[in-house]
Design brief:
- The chain is built from eleven helices and twelve strands.
- It is α/β, with parallel strands linked by helices and 346 residues long.
- An eight-stranded mixed β-sheet has the order 1-11-12-8-7-2-3-6, sandwiched between helices. A two-stranded antiparallel sheet has the order 4-5. A two-stranded antiparallel sheet has the order 9-10.
- Strand 9 and strand 10 form a beta hairpin.
- The chain is globular and about 65 Å long.
- The structure holds S-adenosylmethionine.
- The site of S-adenosylmethionine has 19 residues, from loops.
Amino acid sequence: MDISDKLEWGPLATFVPNKKLPVYNWLYFKEGFSRELVFNLLDKFKPSRVLDPFCGSGTTLLACKEKGVPSVGTDQLPIARLASRVKTGDWDPEKLREVLAGLTKVKFRRIPYQGPFKRFFQKNVLEDVLLFKEEISKVAPPERDFLLLALTSTAMRISWAWKDGNVLKVKKHPVPPFRKFFMRRAKRMIKEAVAFQGTGKTEVAESLKSVGGKTVDAVITSPPYLNQIDYSRVYSIEDWLIDESSEGQQYLGPESEGKYFHDMGSVLKELFRVCKSGAWVGIVVGNAYFPQEDRIVESDLKLAELGEKADFKAKEILVLNKRHALQRRTIKRGELRESLIILKKE
Ligand SMILES: C[S@@+](CC[C@H](N)C(=O)[O-])C[C@H]1O[C@@H](n2cnc3c(N)ncnc32)[C@H](O)[C@@H]1O
């Protein structure tokens, strides 16, 4: 199998380019990749239906919608599923404006809160966020989901939460007025929803198991990286704001190396099941470094191998980014790759 550099695609393996894009930026999702990466893979694979089993903030689904390609996604994280559904939804702007206007009339009253998320917000702001959350819960779906995403992304923008790798820290700073910020954001989202051009039918499925056999001819995805993020922890404030919790569920990534590759092996077998013959699979993944043991794990090679075990043909590995494996944040101990693995069901 061929390993070659494709470093010009490196910036596309990050969420940064999406930050300026309407709809794509409705939720800041640091671990996401960019629309252009999906566009490039759609050009390469020319699929008629795409799957993203780790759809996160919905980049793959939204890019497919924009290009008129049907797609299906799954994700274990509640806020990821909500964001993917809302971003790819077909919205009636009149209805959205009507429910939003209802919220402008909400009189302020105190919603006391003494729980664990208190430390991430200024007290008055949090009470108002919770009041809006209560009012939004009275709105019927799907408009409720739209407003919940607007509320969650606004609340995170003005919170004191600071995501430092796998840890949620508190960084206090002056905060803008919540209601004004929320209304502005919700109105902007409505405008962008109206302007968004895309005809691909999208679906957010319950789980990978619920996706039918031989129903897709491309998979475009990025799984959690080994030893990086515990999604249920890093997105616990967002999940709390949408009234869902995924604590206790099995997330890939933070667990042991053995379990990670065992689980990814099962995912690859599932992908083989849902792929039609001739289907292409593109997986973006980063290698891991365990500083205590001073050991690098080449996840890209390992996943390509597991792909072959699942009966795919490993075609190539394109290296998108290279960085140093650092011990105690400064001592260089080798090179870590972030790669795009290309598999094919022949
Ligand atoms: C690297 S992110 C994907 C980001 C996505 N490409 C985007 O642009 O937003 C990996 C995703 O895998 C999800 N995940 C972690 N463990 C999972 C599991 N066991 N089953 C399904 N999804 C899982 C996380 O919630 C996260 O959204």
